[in-house]
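Run log // design_07
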């Protein structure tokens, strides 16, 4: 799958083997985080296109157009405001 980062103007390949947050860090793209488990909401970003899901609904409140990088499962190519 492809992850397009709007503000970085770059696209990364992604295979769901790690969290999206971990994958971004491995590619030297850093974003704020704290808990890494869906509790705090610090890693929240806007999703513009595509679909994600969660194994368990995160405790952090998110809007329908937001995802948590630490715990989302990418279902399709996505475009995020990052």
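design_07 sequence
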């Amino acid at each position: 799958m492809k992850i397009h980062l709007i503000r970085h103007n770059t696209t990364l390949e992604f295979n769901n083997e790690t969290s999206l947050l971990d994958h971004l860090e491995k590619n030297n793209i850093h974003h704020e985080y704290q808990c890494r488990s869906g509790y705090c909401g610090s890693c929240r970003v806007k999703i513009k296109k595509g679909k994600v899901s969660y194994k368990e609904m995160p405790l952090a409140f998110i809007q329908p157009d937001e995802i948590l990088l630490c715990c989302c499962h990418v279902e399709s190519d996505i475009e995020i405001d990052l």
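The chain has one domain: 1-78.
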